[in-house]
Write a structure and sequence with these properties.
The structure is a single chain. The chain has 852 residues and is α+β, with helices and mostly antiparallel strands. Helices cover 35% and strands 17% of the residues. It contains 26 helices and 35 strands. Strands 9-8-23-22-21 form a five-stranded antiparallel beta sheet, sandwiched between helices. The chain has a four-stranded mixed beta sheet with strand order 2-1-7-19. Helix 2 runs parallel beside helix 5, helix 6 crosses helix 9 and helix 18 crosses helix 21. The longest helix is centred in the N-terminal third of the chain and has 21 residues. The radius of gyration is 44 Å and the shape is rod-shaped. The relative contact order is 0.07. The N terminus is likely disordered.
Length: 852
């Protein structure tokens, strides 16, 4: 059994024990090195100083290690999602390796490891002489020297440019330079190994050196370290190796690519061209080396005769377990994994250049702990798999969902209907694109988000002091003036229309929001400015999926979300409302730990308070709650008692969204064509229409989030922003009907025609309106035309003779005139009329004249 933590200072046997550390270098030169140098033509002062002139300090850096992305399961346990490596290495601690493996290595490679000072002088002398003669380039090295050799190989490999066309050849050269040099080069290599071996024996314990060697050594191909080798060749761990397995691995490490046992076709051919060390010959070469190791272990008393006999009789039986590298092995979590990977490869927190970052991921031994929460992820992924086919009709139908934590931006869940693959394929059920992300994070171009973009019109409306109870003419219009950067642009909202083809209506902003009325939101935009609306989106963290700003281009139709944006960006905006106005950068990484156990700097992320005011956020939430309670988002509400806000979105007939949020978690779901514009309406897959799949997907994810995180009551809406708004109604009596309609509609009112009323005005003239004075903005005003039959009893009839009065009445249009008997005397004059003089009435009204 290996001894615990025994250092060279405590070793009394061998060369170091005899003369002490300080004399090692001189003794080696005087007793061993000088004769060898003389054989190679080096003598005298040169021979005496060469050893001392070699570098003494070897910097033992961390070897290349695989990086692993983790998530936390429901019990708080770290679960590996995926690993990335250039060299498959899983470092272990001393007590994580079976003692029988230590015994196998020491018996076969360096049985005096715990009693020498880093160098076996006799064996080294023979190796040096063979190098000079050119008869062999073998090492005959101690474990300490082999550790040094592997450290230097690793150092060389880490400096190879991974983008070089000769990358593979350069890696092989690193190995050759460290293992195969002959002649003077071989002498210098061996002397340097000796010098460094002596140095590391001063700096490290014996156990640390032994473990370091086993963690760094190559075991064939890209398999490095005893743990990865145990897993790969025997599907076990280094702690659970049998005697036969331990002896096999101890044999493999002596000549890794010759003795590896994962090549069924063999690892070399003899001079007759016959494959050797193959499955067919029982891996004869490896078995011979294994049996040698077993013999050494028996001779050293490390195993019993029975153990030896049993292990030697056992055939070489690989149980190859090929490690899955990359996100493809993360199953339903693969797209979240890919999103995290893209952060590491693109954020300067992980390196100055893209290649530096890629190398760090594959070589740097990072432990990347993420925000993924299986309490949400499992339900969301299961629902996605049950509802959305991976490839519905070979026409790019896809779906994605994402949930983020309100107030932190942590991405808790990410699902997608397709199967993740790294390589391009024509199979539309498979892709590497992360639909929930953007071009930088998942190489996705985003999607036209539709009416969920109306959020920013609503926010701008409230920020400008308007009320959600303000009433507007929300009918489709052919020439609506909508300001774009202060310049009004004529917009034919009839071309867009409303979902279902309705013509719209006069109503409040609350109704427009609950029913997602396009024409109503265009009416709101006509009182705002498109450029300001897009600035709100920009302020709330929304960018185009290609990284450009949403404010770069501004058109009236931006109200309805035609821009390509990622679901994550839209989720972040709705989370801002749910948080009371705080925007948090979406983030997927909680912490990163390097191989040294220290936490690394994370990508920049922040939460910014006051992106929108609390009053505006509360009032927007008030309006958006109506969407989830009887509005267009009703089908996505799990109705579990958690208050929710939300919004639906549809772009034309190929892209749909559903976003909903509690005060704790926001969920965004997209479903539609991820390429092309084929219609998704009236098409069924299983029990669901394609355009309606967003509802159960969002409902399942949000229900799981509500169960895990809960949710509070949203704050009360601001009173001023929910006030009833009245405006002055223009007086249009006396105008033509067309003039009156135009005047009222220009002020935002709806207009309807009433029945004609008695008036002496022409029939195309407004004779009455209702209401007049003040009314709610956008209210319906009834205008009534003249019936052309009205007239007025002349005001100057009193004092006229009956004949003059009759003539005046007939002139005014009256046809029924009754002259009282009091008017018979020749001197009689008019005293009164009924109706009285000046009365407006119909021409058919009977007029009675009384005289005095």
């Amino acid at each position: 059994m290996p001894q615990k933590n025994r250092t060279v200072r405590g070793v009394l046997g061998g060369l170091v024990g005899l003369v002490g550390l300080s004399a090692v270098a001189g003794l080696l030169v005087a007793a061993s090195v000088t004769p060898v140098l003389t054989m190679s033509g080096l003598a005298g002062a040169q021979a005496l100083t060469l050893f001392d002139e070699l570098p003494e300090v070897l910097q033992v850096d961390n070897p290349m290690e695989q990086s692993t992305i983790y998530a936390t399961d429901q019990d708080g346990k770290d679960i590996a999602l995926a690993s990335f490596y250039e060299q498959n290495r899983v470092p272990v601690k001393y007590d994580q390796v079976s003692p029988v493996l230590y015994d196998a290595i020491l018996s076969s490679e360096d049985k005096s490891f715990y009693s020498h000072g880093g160098v076996n002088v006799g064996a080294t002398m023979k190796a040096l002489i063979d190098n000079v003669r050119g008869t062999s380039s073998r090492g005959a090295s101690t474990i300490s020297q082999q550790f040094v050799k592997n450290v230097r190989i690793q150092e060389c490999e880490q400096n190879v440019d991974t983008t070089s066309d000769t990358y593979s050849e350069e890696l092989q050269q690193c190995w050759r330079d460290a293992t195969e040099a002959t002649g003077a080069d071989g002498i210098e290599r061996k002397l340097q190994e000796m010098r460094y071996a002596i140095q590391i024996e001063k700096d490290y314990s014996k156990n640390d050196i032994l473990l370091g060697y086993l963690n760094i050594a190559n075991f064939g191909g890209t398999v490095y370290g005893i743990e990865a080798a145990s897993r790969y060749y025997f599907s076990t761990t280094a702690a659970n190796l049998t005697v036969a397995q331990a002896a096999t691995l101890a044999g493999i490490v002596q000549n890794p690519n010759t003795y590896r046992i994962d090549k069924k076709e063999g690892t070399w051919t003899n001079k007759e061209g016959v494959a050797q060390n193959s499955e067919a010959d029982g891996y004869a070469g490896t078995k011979d080396r294994r049996d040698y190791v077993l013999g050494r272990m028996l001779a050293d008393g490390k195993i019993t005769q029975a153990q030896y006999d049993e292990a030697k009789a056992a055939p070489i039986t690989p149980a190859i377990k090929v490690p899955t590298q990359g996100c493809g092995g993360a199953g339903p979590n693969a797209y979240f994994c890919q999103y995290v990977k893209s952060i590491v490869e693109n954020d300067e927190a992980f390196g100055a250049t893209e290649q530096d970052r890629r190398d760090l991921l594959r070589r740097g031994g990072l432990k990347i702990y993420t925000s993924l929460d299986f309490r949400i992820q499992n339900d969301a992924a299961r629902t996605m798999g049950e509802i959305v086919p991976a490839n519905y009709d070979n026409n790019y139908f896809g779906a994605a969902g994402v949930s983020i934590e309100v107030g932190t931006g942590r991405i808790l869940s990410m699902t997608q209907n397709t199967q993740f693959v790294e390589t391009p394929t024509d199979d539309l059920a498979k892709t590497s694109l992360v639909f929930a992300g953007d071009q930088l994070h998942g190489n996705s171009g985003g999607f036209q988000v539709g009416s969920v973009y109306k959020l920013f019109t609503l926010i701008d409306w409230l920020e400008k002091g308007h009320s959600v109870n303000e009433v507007l003419n929300g009918r489709v219009q052919t020439n609506l003036k909508i300001p774009v950067c202060t310049v009004p642009q004529s917009t034919n909202t009839k071309e867009i229309g409303n979902f279902g083809g309705g013509g719209g209506s006069t109503g409040s902003v609350m109704n427009f929001t609950r029913n997602s009325l396009n024409s109503g939101y265009f009416a709101m935009a006509s009182k705002l400015d498109i450029c300001d609306i897009n600035k709100v989106a920009d302020r709330m963290g929304v960018t185009l999926a290609n990284g450009k700003k949403v404010t770069d281009e501004n058109v009236p139709y931006d109200v309805l979300g035609p821009k390509n944006i990622s679901p994550i960006a839209m989720a972040g905006a709705y989370a801002t409302v749910a948080s009371g106005g705080t925007y948090c950068t979406p983030r997927a990484i909680d912490r990163v730990v390097g191989p040294d156990g220290k936490e690394r700097e994370l990508p920049a992320a922040a939460c910014t308070e006051g992106v929108i005011s609390k009053e505006v956020a509360a009032t927007a939430a008030y309006a958006l709650q109506s969407v989830m309670n009887g509005g267009t988002g009703n089908q996505a509400n799990p109705y579990d008692g958690t208050p929710l806000i939300g919004k639906t979105g549809t772009h034309d007939r190929w892209s749909t969204m559903m976003i909903e949020s509690s005060t704790k978690v926001t969920t965004a779901v997209w479903a539609g064509r991820w390429k092309g514009q084929a219609d998704i309406y009236q098409k069924w897959a299983g029990n669901y229409q394609l355009n309606a799949m967003r509802y159960p997907l969002a409902r399942a994810a949000q229900a799981a989030a509500n169960a895990a995180y809960g949710g509070d009551r949203f704050p009360d809406a601001d009173r001023n922003l929910t006030r009833r708004v009245v405006t002055e109604v223009p007086d249009v009596v006396g105008m033509t009907m067309d003039e009156a309609r135009s005047t009222l509609e220009s002020r935002g009112f709806s207009v309807t025609n009433g029945a004609p009323v008695e008036s002496d005005k022409p029939t195309n003239i407004v004779a009455a309106q209702d209401p007049s004075g003040q009314a709610a903005g956008g209210a319906t005003i009834t205008i009534s035309p003249s019936n052309g039959q009205g007239t007025t009893v002349p005001a100057d009839l009193v004092g006229k003779s009956p004949t003059e009065a009759t003539a005046a009445l007939r002139s005014a249009g009256f046809t029924s005139i009754d002259i009282d008997n009091s008017c018979n005397p020749p001197s009689a004059v008019v005293a009164s009329t009924n109706p009285p003089p000046g009365t407006a009435t119909s021409k058919t009204t009977g007029i009675t004249v009384t005289c005095q």
